[in-house]
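TASK: fixed-backbone design
INPUT:
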């Protein structure tokens, strides 16, 4: 399946989502409410079978926080990017995808630790690298008074 076919299939599996092409991978952007249902459809559909979560990247887009998921189908040897974002910077929350891909466990903990995005339904959401005295150092509004990050 090429990217054009994959985009058409993704549009059927995720109605109402934004589908972008023209990059290395097809990108699907969904609202937080559609994240789990879209991810489930991408994993379970016999046409896509995205059985592997490669990575989750936490993002700070300035006014919004979000996540970017790279998914791979080992059966069909194709990849897709799934994105979602929230505008609530004070209490950003998304649903966990740990029940679909166990690899999401540490990825979600890392995003929580560095950006403060909470994942509802995560089996053990706690900081991975930093203690509770830290803020969220990958946020654009993070104040690094002693310049630990070298910015």
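OUTPUT:
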């Amino acid at each position: 399946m090429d990217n054009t076919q994959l985009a058409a299939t993704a549009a059927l599996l995720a109605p109402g989502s934004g589908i972008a092409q023209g990059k290395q991978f097809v990108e699907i952007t969904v609202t937080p409410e559609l994240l789990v249902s879209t991810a489930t459809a991408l994993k379970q559909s016999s046409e896509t079978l995205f059985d592997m979560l490669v990575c989750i990247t936490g993002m700070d887009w300035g006014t919004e926080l979000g996540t970017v998921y790279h998914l791979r189908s080992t059966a069909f040897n194709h990849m897709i990017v799934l994105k979602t974002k929230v505008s609530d910077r004070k209490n950003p929350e998304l649903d966990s995808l740990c029940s679909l891909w166990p690899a999401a466990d540490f990825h979600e903990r890392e995003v929580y630790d560095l950006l403060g995005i909470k994942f509802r339904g995560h089996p053990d959401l706690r900081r991975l690298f930093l203690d509770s005295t830290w803020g969220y150092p990958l946020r654009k509004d993070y104040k690094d008074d002693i310049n630990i990050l070298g910015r």
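COMMENT: The helical segments are 3-13, 35-44, 104-115.
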